[in-house]
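Anyone up for a design puzzle?
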């Protein structure tokens, strides 16, 4: 079972937007050392929407090769084209990932039946564990709990990343699916409560910069230790909020740059964090001792 703190890993780039493989290697080592339970490569935080297919698969392959089986690697392979999602998922399987994470199709606004058929088709086309990803705030597409329930019966669809931040929604999903269907949070601020309700982990932006704290939080929450988990979350809350001062992954890449982990690089149409966001994020990092 893939569970715990799963970092939604950034994709390092230089000032010209070229992928920075040395920094990617450094980030993977950082997470292996700091207790991250799994790495999600080239998801939303990894700027999947701006990478071409070759870059996308190469980044996944490099993470898999470096991790070398020590923790699970999940590849972001979703697309708003079902054919493209199949292609990415096939390539990720070939690269040796443990599972794939597939975002709901963005922009084209499919019906619930269209979502069901889309994800079922990918699952039937590629024999690898697959995790659904619902984030309507970014996709203009909301996969309802009833659709998740239907898809949970497809054999190699093993879980869902529920990123609405709506705990009532998460409760409904948990109530509808079987106990072995993995429900993950995709919202750092509410993840602790979802895990205390029975969720199995958090696919996290915050884990990029505070991996040990997120690992400890997830361990406590999944074990049912609400006092410890909530105490860690309270310390992390200013960071959770500051990392969404502008659209993800703008703030988290800036934070990692401040930490000396990667160069000042992001791809248009995203831009580097604007000046007003610097001090709130720097202060949140200092409060946790991440920056001096």
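Challenge accepted. My sequence:
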């Amino acid at each position: 079972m893939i569970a715990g703190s799963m970092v939604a890993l950034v994709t390092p780039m230089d000032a010209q937007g070229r992928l920075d493989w040395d920094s990617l290697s450094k980030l993977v080592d950082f997470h292996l050392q700091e207790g991250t339970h799994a790495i999600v490569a080239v998801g939303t935080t990894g700027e999947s929407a701006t990478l071409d297919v070759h870059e996308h698969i190469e980044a996944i392959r490099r993470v898999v090769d470096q991790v070398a089986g020590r923790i699970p690697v999940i590849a972001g392979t979703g697309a708003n084209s079902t054919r493209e999602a199949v292609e990415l998922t096939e390539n990720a399987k070939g690269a040796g990932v443990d599972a794939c994470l597939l975002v709901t199709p963005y922009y084209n606004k499919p019906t619930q039946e269209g979502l069901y058929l889309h994800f079922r088709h990918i699952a039937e086309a590629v024999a690898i564990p697959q995790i659904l990803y619902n984030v309507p705030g970014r996709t203009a597409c909301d996969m309802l709990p009833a659709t998740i329930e239907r898809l949970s019966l497809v054999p190699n669809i093993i879980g869902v990343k529920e990123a609405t931040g709506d705990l009532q929604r998460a409760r409904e999903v948990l109530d509808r699916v079987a106990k072995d269907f993995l429900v993950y949070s995709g919202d750092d601020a509410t993840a602790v409560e979802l895990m205390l309700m029975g969720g199995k982990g958090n696919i996290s932006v915050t884990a990029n910069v505070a991996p040990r704290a997120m690992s400890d939080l997830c361990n406590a929450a999944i074990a049912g230790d609400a006092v410890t988990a909530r105490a860690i979350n309270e310390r992390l809350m200013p960071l959770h909020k500051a990392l969404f001062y502008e659209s993800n992954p703008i703030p988290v890449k800036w934070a990692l740059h401040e930490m000396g982990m990667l160069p000042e690089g992001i791809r248009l149409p995203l831009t580097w964090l604007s000046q007003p966001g610097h001090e709130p994020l720097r202060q949140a990092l200092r409060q946790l001792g991440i920056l001096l």
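A detail worth pointing out: The radius of gyration is 18 Å.
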